[in-house]
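FIELD: query
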Amino acid sequence: MEKSGEMGKKELGFAVFCVENIAEYLGISGADAYVLLTDGGNILDNYIIQYYDTLHTQGREYITNDIIECMKKEGVLS
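FIELD: result
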């Protein structure tokens, strides 16, 4: 992530990748997935972007499952 705390192009692309994969996994629109990831515990910023350096090195299935587990822990999904 950039030192200024702003999301760079790589992080933005990864965030979109995650939102779209969560949407596909849950069978919902990208917009609805975005809302789920930004409401409540703000998983998008506080997990996906914060841990970009580690997460982006993993495979698609691992990333999706990891985010789903995070969503469950945060009470976003049951």
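FIELD: remark
The chain has a mean pLDDT of 92.
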